[in-house]
Specification:
The protein is an alpha+beta fold and about 200 residues long. It has a single domain, classed as Peptide Methionine Sulfoxide Reductase, Chain A, CATH 3.30.1060. About 40% of the residues lie in helices and about 20% in strands. The strands form two sheets. It has a six-stranded mixed beta sheet with strand order 7-6-1-3-2-8, covered by helices on one side. The longest helix is centred in the first third of the chain and has 18 residues. The N and C termini lie far apart (about 50 Å).
């Protein structure tokens, strides 16, 4: 019995080291979310302890290496998204999901706030089965809460190729704070978020 158990434990350890998916061995992980304008999706995640970086980009479509101009036509299949690199030991994927939901309008199809078109659709792009399960559980929990009168249309799909956006889009809210604040206010993003989620801040606190 001891020999069999030793073999099983050794195999599990080897598989964990190879895949990098055991909780004790993962140092960094990736999450990808779409919530409309990617300028507005970077700040709430940048504020979180355990988030290493956020990158604006395009995903979910069929056009290789798309430009902003191409994506903005709505013909590439891509949506604006943010890719987050984080430390699972410091912040959980569940926490990232919570922040994601609090920063989108989950009942708005093919649009977010003042931006319309499939390139602004909301979505969760999972990188493994654990993320898929947690994303689906979080969506079901929201549906069961009956918070919204309309159906939740946020898609949950496997992550594909993520194309980083042009450099001027990265950290736009830091590089161009006045223009960013004007856009966000004109889009009435915060007003709609307050209607949907109440007065909790963008981190769900």
């Amino acid at each position: 019995m001891r020999t069999v158990l030793s073999v099983i434990l050794a195999a599990a350890t080897t598989l964990g080291a190879m895949s990098g998916t055991t909780a004790g061995t993962i140092e960094r992980a990736t999450a990808t979310f779409a919530g409309g304008c990617f300028w507005c999706m970077e700040p709430p995640f940048d504020e979180l302890d355990g988030v290493i970086s956020t990158t604006s980009g395009y995903t979910g479509g069929h056009k290789p290496n798309p430009t902003y101009e191409e994506v903005s036509t709505g013909t590439t299949g891509h949506t604006e998204a943010v890719q987050i690199v984080y430390e699972p030991k410091r912040i959980s994927y569940e926490r990232l999901l919570e922040v994601f939901w609090r920063n989108i309008d989950p009942v708005m199809p093919d649009a977010q706030f003042c931006d319309h078109g499939t390139q602004y659709r909301s979505g969760i792009f999972y990188h493994d089965e654990a993320q898929r399960r947690l994303a689906e559980e979080s969506k079901r929990a929201l549906e069961a809460s009956r918070r919204f009168k309309a159906p939740i249309v946020t898609e949950i799909v496997a992550a594909g190729v993520f194309y980083p956006a042009e450099e001027y889009h990265q950290d736009y809210y830091k590089k161009n704070p006045i223009r960013y604040k004007f856009y966000r206010a004109a889009c009435e993003r915060d007003q709609r978020l307050a209607e949907l989620w109440g007065k909790a801040d963008k981190r769900g606190n």
